[in-house]
Amino acid sequence: MQGGVILLDGGMGRELMRIGAPFRQPEWSALALMEAPETVEAVHQAFLQAGSEIVTTNSYALVPFHIGEQRFRDQAQTLAHLSGRLARQAVERTSHTARVAGSLPPLFGSYRPDLFNAPTAQSILEPLIAGLSPWVDIWLGETLGSIAEAEAIKIGLDRADSEDQRPLWLSFTLEDIADDRLHPPRLRSGESIADSVAAAHALGAHALLFNCSQPEVMLPAITLAATAIREQATLGQTALKLGVYANTFEDRSSAEGANESTSGLRRDLTPDSYLTFVRRWVEAGACIVGGCCGIGPEHIRKLHEEITL
Fold this sequence. Notes:
Elements: E1 6-7, H1 12-18, H2 30-35, H3 37-50, E2 54-56, H4 64-67, H5 69-92, E3 99-104, H6 118-132, E4 138-144, H7 147-160, E5 168-172, H8 193-202, E6 207-211, H9 218-233, E7 241-246, H10 271-284, E8 288-291, H11 297-306
């Protein structure tokens, strides 16, 4: 994109559902990977054709929470490898330069930092990292509800290859409370935006993002993060890139996991209205933008056409 803004893709799961791919709970987007992998590549291609410069592997649901303990033990690495290969194939077929981000998800359920279990985290991460590693350009820890989840990902990557030079991007999900005058934005764990900036620096991340939250909470989060990054820069820290990719979920209780049911999607977040949010994020300092659940190729196409700074 023009002006140094990097354009991500949109939400894999809801686009699979929209095109009629195999899709149900609890497997979520993993079901299409297992039963109709060609549909996963088709979604990647649709986002690339819309202008995405990065596609994210369909590995988000490859955790025991979604596919079950036995299937995870038997198939996790193979499925992760397939998700990476499908993303790479789509990139190789596109007409513009694009990269693959390897999705490393919350390991014990979305929006549930309270369920995080450090002693077992690495046994889940290990096959995901091993399967994705041959295919990805960027490691993306996404929809992380706490700093502990980000720390686990860094440990897992270091254990797999301490010399791996690929960029690490860390993306946190926020509480869906829009009125920052009464309640400043924060991670779902309750940790602050400043804490997330400090953690991203400490873990050697190249970018800090916020995702899978309503678009209304993103601007105050980006504003706080940009301020904290500037303060860190005065201490000699390399500036983090900032990014945002919001979802279109209807208002819901943050106590409910993101994929415990099939949530309704907002009708007001059209490509044009989502563009309005994205412009504000970019003006506040975001240089990586895209979409999460419910953001489709039509939204990404609008961003590709209109974001020029």
